[in-house]
Amino acid sequence: NAGVTQTPKFRVLKTGQSMTLLCAQDMNHEYMYWYRQDPGMGLRLIHYSVGEGTTAKGEVPDGYNVSRLKKQNFLLGLESAAPSQTSVYFCASSSQGSSNTGELFFGEGSRLTVL
Amino acid sequence: RKEVEQDPGPFNVPEGATVAFNCTYSNSASQSFFWYRQDCRKEPKLLMSVYSSGNEDGRFTAQLNRASQYISLLIRDSKLSDSATYLCVVIGSARQLTFGSGTQLTVLP
What we know:
The complex is a heterodimer. Chain A is mostly beta strands. Helices cover 3% and strands 50% of the residues of chain A.
């Protein structure tokens, strides 16, 4: 039972390079999220999706783009990486009822370093 | 002021001790409250919900104080395996989850 899978798990980029993080979930969840976690800042929502073909901005969307072409996948793109985007990125998914249950299922995280 | 604030710790306690964490939230319209646990270099996982009347799950007790806008987590008879970071989570009127920055607990042998 894979749950939520993120790839890659580690990546080092140079400033200005682009990359895409892939999140895949096999739980048939409607909602998917991308968070970043920095020391002392907690988890901050970048973008989220409430269903296939839909995306919305979260708290810190600048410098990122997302796509949800298939229900099971949620892609996070960095078009021109900056050192401020060095962080640990977590993907999460939830059923429609998560806003009541509060339960998000997280991937293992992707550690990105931008030099 | 942050929407959700936690004492970052670290809390270092001996095995068997009782430890409590608080978390304050700024939005009085917040509707739901939760505690997540995050082990070092791992993903967060839901520990328990927090109900208005307070609730227990084994050695863990969660409480909500709406008047003072804080939630608490009490851990009794601490185990080494309880060492982790505990994240407070609040769902506000916009139905989005807001995470606190976490409280680090280390249980010492």
